[in-house]
Amino acid sequence: MEDGSVTGEATTYPVSVKGVVIHDGRVLLLHNERDEWELPGGRIEPGESPEECVVREIAEETRLLVRANELLDAWTYHIDAVGRSVFIVTYGCTLVEDGAPVVSPEHDAAELFSPTDVATLRMPDGYKRSITTWFEMNAR
Questions:
Q1: Rg of the Cα trace of the chain?
Q2: CB contact at 8 A, 130 and 98
Q3: Is the predicted pLDDT of residue 2 greater than 60, yes or no?
Q4: What is the pTM of this model?
Q5: I want to staple 62 with a disulfide (CB 3.0 to 4.6 A). Which of 26, 99, 101, 108 is the partner?
Q6: What is the β-pairing status of strands 15-23 and 84-95?
Q7: Distances (CA, A) of 78 to 13, 17, 28, 64, 136
Q8: How far are the Cα atoms of 1, 12, 60, 72, 133 from residue 4, in angstroms, in the given order?
Q9: What pLDDT does residue 92 have?
Q10: What band does 28 get if pLDDT is binned at 50, 70 and 90?
């Protein structure tokens, strides 16, 4: 409408909170069933803060303990393979203690990638943007 108001039904999306975890100059990524690399994280639960969600999800998916830091980005991702969209929120995260990730049944691999490698991977551009932002923030 001309006055900026919106009519019609509201669009709702599930919310997924993801974490950019850097270890030794490389970012942790998980490989999913769609043959994509993705950031660890998952759906927010009722009553949970986004920061609590990302810490819980990373622990569930990798058994790594992290601290959620800065909010990096928020965007909507349409998953063609399943025909739905998800609202993605990304946080920069810091490992609380060193350790090797343990892959959960949700993924088939966990690997660390350099920023140069990330550019060549099959993954949503929003993840790449968040990874670049967190690397830049940590370089200061």
A1: 16
A2: no
A3: no
A4: 0.88
A5: 101
A6: parallel
A7: 10, 15, 23, 28, 27
A8: 6, 20, 42, 28, 32
A9: 98
A10: very high
* Domains by residue range for the chain, with CATH: 15-139 (3.90.79.10)
| Angstrom distance (rounded) from CA 127 to CA 106 | 18
Task: Count CB neighbours of 82 within 10 A.
Answer: 9
Give the pLDDT mean for 87-110: 94
Query: Do β-strands 26-31 and 37-38 pair in parallel, antiparallel, or remain unpaired?
Result: antiparallel
Name every residue whose Cβ is closer than 8 Å to that of residue 4 and which is 6 or more positions away in sequence.
none
Using DSSP bridges, classify how beta strands 109-113 and 15-23 pair: parallel, antiparallel or unpaired: unpaired
- ∠ CA 36-58-111 to the nearest 5 degrees? 45
Q: What percent of the chain has pLDDT over 90?
A: 76
Contact (CB, 8 A) for 57 and 17: yes
Token duo for residue 8: 């019609």
**Phi, psi angles (nearest 5°) of residue 96:** -80, -35
**Which one, of 24, 19, 110, lies nearest residue 66 by Cα?**
19
